[in-house]
Structures are given as C-alpha cells and as structure tokens.
Amino acid sequence: MDTMTLVGTAVGSVLLLLFLVMKARLHAFVALMLVSIGAGIFSGMPLSKITQAMQDGMGGTLGFLTIVVALGAMFGKILHETGALDQIAAHLLKSFGEKRAHYALGIAGLVCALPLFFDVAIVLLIGVVFAVARRTNGNVVKMAIPLFAGVASAAAFLLPGPVPMLLAAQMNADFGWMIAIGLVAAILGMLLAGPLFGNFISKRVSWPMPEEENAPVLDKSNMPSFGLSLALVLCPLVLVGMKTIGARFVTPNTNLYDWLEFIGHPFTAILIACLVVIYGLAKPRGMSKEQIMSICSAAIQPAGIILLMTGAGGVFKQILVDSGVGPALGDALIGAGLPIAVACFVLSAAVRVIQGSATVACLTTVGLVLPVTTQLGLNGGQLAALAICIAGGSIVLSHVNDAGFWLFGKFTGANELQTLKTWTVMETILGTVGGVVGMIAFTLF
Fold it and tell me: Which GO MF term does the entry hold, naming one (predicted)?
C-alpha cells in the first residue's frame, strides 16, 4: 500500500475517533477499539494480525503501567492522609510570604503532584488556593493558574507520573535522563505558565471566587515535619536517579551494578517508597493495619478507568506500528526534512488538539515515530529528549474535548471563554516550553 494511503488512514482514524467521542457520544474506550480495528482493516492488515496487535498493544502497555499506577496511587494517598502533602504546601506558603504566594502555589503543585494523578492532586490542593486568595485578598486567577501549572507540569514531565513513565518505557528511554530533562522542562514551564502568566492574565481576566466546601485543615501537631515530608515525596525519584548516576561509575555486569539497576527500576523504586511511607510514616503515627489497607484500597479504585483508557491508547498505537501506518508517516516526515524532535512535538500536538487525551496523543505519536527512532539508532538520552517533546505536544491547546478543560472550570468557577483565556493558554505555554527543552536536549546528546 502506498504512503499517501497509509497516511490518509492515520489521519482518517484520528478524525473518526474525534467524531465517535464528540458527536456520537460513544465511550472513548469503545471508540478507540473500533478505530483501531478500522485502521487495521483499511491499511490492509490480515484480520488475524489485527486481533493479535490489539492484544499485544494492551498487554505491552499495561504490563508496565499497571504496577506503576497501583503503587503510585497508594503512595500518594498515604502521603495525603498522613498530612505530608499539606505540610509541604503550608511550609512553602509560609516561606514565600503573601506577596509571592503565587510562586509558592506553583511549587506546591509541582512537588505535591509527583505521587498523584492530575485530578486527584487538584482535588486535594484546590482548597489551598481559595484559602490563600481570601487571606491575601488576591485575585483567584492569580493563585489558581500557578497551582494548575505546577500540577500539570508534574503530570506531563516528571517521573513517577503515569504519562512520563509510560513514555519512557514505550520509547526505551533512559529513566535517569528522563528525570533530568523532565525537571528542567517542568520547572521552566511551571514558572512561565504559572506565576508569570498568572500574574499577567489576572489583570485582564477575573471571576467571583466560588464557595469553598472543603477547606484544608493544616494542624502542625498532626503533620510530619517538612523535611521528612519532602524526603518521602522525592524518595522514588532519588532511587531511580541512583541507577543512572551510579551506573556511570560502576563496572557493568558486577553485583553492585546489578543491584543499582534493580533498585533503580521504577517497579522497585515505587514499591520501596510505598513500604517506607507505610512503615516509616503511617504506622508510627498510629494508623492501624485496617486503616492502611482501607487507604490503599481506596487509592487504587479510581485507577481502573485510567488504565483502561491508557491500554486502549496502546492498542491504537500497536495497530499503527504493525499496519505500516506509523513507518509510512514517520518516513514521510523525515523525508520532508522535518527534524525528528520537531516531528515528535508537532504530531503529538496535532493528535492532542483533535481528540483531547494527552495519554492517547502520547501513545499515538510513539506508534508513529517509533519505527523512525529505531532506524536512527538513538541512545537513551536522545530517546528521553524525544519523549519530553512528545509530552510537551500532548498538552498544548487544551479545549472542550479535554477533561482538564472542564475540571479547571468546575473547580475555579470560570466559564468556557474565561477557561480558554486562562487554562488553554497556560497549557499551551507549558507544553511549548517542554517541547523546546526537549528539542534543545536532543541536539546536545
């Protein structure tokens, strides 16, 4: 089948997905399954290989992510229940002072969201925004934008977040370089899209503060210290980073090297972090075994739909790879002279704008560019840089087909036009900064 037909299949598949989700109001999981089958048929795949590709795509994606999401959800929930995340937020607000409270909220969102899903982090931290806005008589926009920027930057670029973890695994990127490049992208993006843009747009857009239903209760006597709280949040990052840094100074194929590889794997790192917060924080603070079990069970329940949607995106990605659509489109982009780092950002952004989901945009783009990256023989650092480019593209231009768009309006009280002027621009700044950081990092390796 010629390249134009295969490229047309890819474009048509994404447009069909948009129609099924937005117009036909079909559940996104079912829509992804149907579109995947359609893409396989129209690209000329044998029917027997379509079902095998669907199985491979689901298993290959969830085989890694399920463990990460389950352990990460438990880790974050225990940190919240013990007051560790509240302690970090309270300490940052106190340290920065009222005039720079918007910077504190951005950093709090970035740090506290590390072990949490995006929507969970917003639910847990949004009350702090309203409390600070009331205390400082400030514009809620000036306080809300930095918090959302911090949470969004962590969710998009920082391990152990599900999306960046998934990208690193699918791209075969070096996890240590993924952390390093992701930190630069997240911090720069949070500062520009959060406090700086928030301060600018708050002078032009404002709305009444909604009623605060669940104000955070920050009681110092019931919270762990700031140092301990921060150390626990960063624990899995440190363990993963040890592998990359330590392996450079240790002889390969030795016992020490193998132990560093084992301890620094995301599975092991997050499991160790979970055990540390359970036995080093929860139990010493008087939590019973039953309470801890209840918290862990409650934490993993919301993960089901996230895993299903991510697995469905993996199915679509695998169909694109196995059908030849991915290689054809990737070769067409390279043949057109578009640099691979730019192509990763542009493709991810295009899919994101059309169908809304950052996770699906990432997985679809991986399916399109993976054949090209394999041919180029890139190293782990270069693949990590490309993963950050994809992550950046996957969050730009958020609009009405993105759940985050409506989440922002729901929690802040903004209408649709106000959300476009604030949330959409903030996400675009954040994603563009991440994409540029990834492109620069790719050229340096």
Answer: gluconate transmembrane transporter activity
